[in-house]
Each structure stands twice: as C-alpha cells, then as structure tokens.
Amino acid sequence: MAEQVKLLGHWASPFNCRIETALKLKGVQYEFIQEDLQNKSPLLLKCNPIHKKIPVLLHNGKPICESLVILEYIDETWKGTPIFPEDPHERAIGRFWANFIDEKCLPAIKKAFFTKDDKAIEEASELLKTLEAQLNDNKFFRGDNVGLVDIVANLFGYWVGVIQEAMGVELLTEEKFPRLRKCIDDTILVHKKIPVLLHNGKPICQLVVILEYIDEKYLPALWKAWWSKDNEQAKTTEEAYIVANFIGFRLGVLLEAMGSEELLTDEKFPMGEQCRKLDPTQLEIGEQCRKLESFKLPE
C-alpha cells in the first residue's frame, strides 16, 4: 500500500508554511487540501476536534495536529535533511526556543502592532533581542543549516514585515536586528515561501514592496490595457493583472486572519480600490500560483 500524506491547511497561513517547508526539506510528496476557514470541513473537525484549527497532517489516515508537534513528527518519520539536532540536549534547546517564539515573541509582537504602545513595542523588542542573541555569528540558529528554530521564526518573515510597514511601527527592522532579519530573509530565499517578483532579473521579495511596486508601475497602464480593444496590449499585461490580483488578495487574507484588514487602505495603495473591483473568478488563479516559486512581470 502506497504511503498517503495529506496536509489540511490554508495557503495564506504562516503555520501551514512551517509544515510545507519541513515536508519539502524531507522530500516528502503530499496532497494539499485547502480549508475554508469560515466554513471548516467535516474532515478538519473530525481530525482536530479539540482546537478545530489548521494545520493538520494526515499520515496514512492518522491525524497529527499543532504545527510544532507536526514538525517533530515529520523529523522522526522521514529521513533526509534533519530538522532537529541529533543530540538530545540540543533538541531540547531547539524546542525551548521554538516555544519561546510562539508563546513569548508572537503575542508580544501582536500587542505592539495593534496597540502601538511604546511600552509594548519595547517589550517586544527586548524579546527579539534575546532571540537574536541565540544566533551568535551563525547564518542560521543551527549554524549553516536551516533547522527547527529557523522554520518557526520564519513566521516573522511571512507577515511581520508587511504589517509593521502598514502600521507604521518599526519593530523587526534590519537596522535594529540585522542578524535576525538576515537569518529570516535567507530562510525565505532558500525555501521561497513568499512571492518573489522578478523584474529585469532583480528580485523584490517583500510583499509590501511588491504591492507598492505594482501600484506605482503597472496598475495605471494595466487598467488602460485591460479595457483597450488592442488585444495584444492587453495580453502583455495579463500576467501583471494576475499577480496584482493574487498578491493583493493574499495580503487581504493575512490581514483578515489577524483582524486587521483595514491596513490595506486606499491612502497607502491608491489603486487598491480598482484592484478590489477585479473579477473575483480570477482569484482561482491564486491557488494555481501557490506552487510557483516566483512570479515574473513583463518589462
């Protein structure tokens, strides 16, 4: 009987991102099952009746819940690139810092963003300083190779950079945390877990930068071409249309999940209102784009 591996998740979830990164590190083939978080499937409710949350890993029909638990299961079940160290003490240290990120850093960062309180920002900064200190002079938390703590910390790279700029709160910046920021960016580039826009061969990796870039350079011409009778002109901008729609929708999902959808404002992205009027059927393209490693826009 062939091995069956399924992942119940949502393509915009940073916790889902952890599991996909681990499975790809191990070279495990899996089926991704997209969940509607507003209308959770009977399968999800059956597999995770306690928390009713994603992600859930199904291995030969047996469910495993909670991202940190799933990561450990993946490392113990499949050979390949190790996620946890072999040494028991080092494994315990890795678990400690993974829990530190989820239980200490994440709540403090959310509080800092949504209250904009100076004391909350200072408390979050102190926690991030503590985390950064664990890097020492290493590229990743385990040295030269990505491991558990890097995968868990990648949650920051997935959405913190976007929200801190949208909120106007400087927290996890390159100036304040150069080593931590570089570690997160290197992990993102290694595993390509967020969209990378390529223009004339130059990568633009931050979601908020991509949005601004599209807003300034492509959307005005894009709309003119879209309604033009010149089919060839419209064709040349079709990919930009898809990318703008997909990325805007993706950011919207992330912000909605955090209760902060008002951050994607017309003041920050003036063309956003037109983008929201795009044909909603095009959002299906976003799911197809989920597996792509990068997006390319026309010059």
What's the helical proportion of residues? 55-70%
The CATH topology of the largest domain comes to: Glutathione S-transferase Yfyf (Class Pi), Chain A, domain 2
Give the CA-based shape: globular
**Name of the CATH class of the largest domain:** Mainly Alpha
Number of helices: 13
Task: Sketch the topology as an H/E string, one letter per element.
Answer: EHEHEEHHHHHEEHHHHHHE
By secondary-structure content and strand pairing, the structural class works out as alpha/beta
Cross-sheet strand order for the largest sheet: 2-1-3-4
Ends apart, CA distance between termini: 49 Å
Number of strands: 7
| Share of β-strand residues | 5-15%
Number of domains: 3
Main sheet properties: 4 strands, mixed
Can you give the mean pLDDT? 74
Uncertain spans: 231-243, 256-263, 274-299
CATH architecture of the largest domain: Up-down Bundle
Gyration radius (Cα, Å) is 20 Å
Catalytic activity: RX + glutathione = an S-substituted glutathione + a halide anion + H(+)
Family: Belongs to the GST superfamily.
Organism: Camellia sinensis var. sinensis (China tea)
EC number: 2.5.1.18
What does this structure look like?
This protein is an alpha/beta fold and 299 residues long. The protein folds into three domains: 5-77, Glutaredoxin (3-Layer(aba) Sandwich); 88-191, Glutathione S-transferase Yfyf (Class Pi), Chain A, domain 2, CATH 1.20.1050; 197-296, no CATH class. The protein is 55% helix and 8% strand. The chain contains 13 helices and seven strands. It has helices at 14-26, 42-47, 67-77, 88-115, 118-133, 148-167, 178-191, 207-217, 219-226, 231-236, 238-257, 272-276, 283-289, and strands spanning 5-9, 31-34, 56-59, 62-65, 197-199, 202-204, 295-296. The protein has a four-stranded mixed beta sheet with strand order 2-1-3-4, with helices on one face. A hairpin with a 2-residue loop joins β5 (197-199) and β6 (202-204). α1 runs antiparallel to α6 and α4 packs parallel to α6 (148-167). The longest helix is centred in the middle third of the chain and has 28 residues, at 88-115. It is globular, with a radius of gyration of 20 Å. 33% of the residues are buried. Residues 231-243, 256-263 and 274-299 have low confidence and may be disordered. It is an enzyme of class 2 (transferase). Keywords: Transferase.
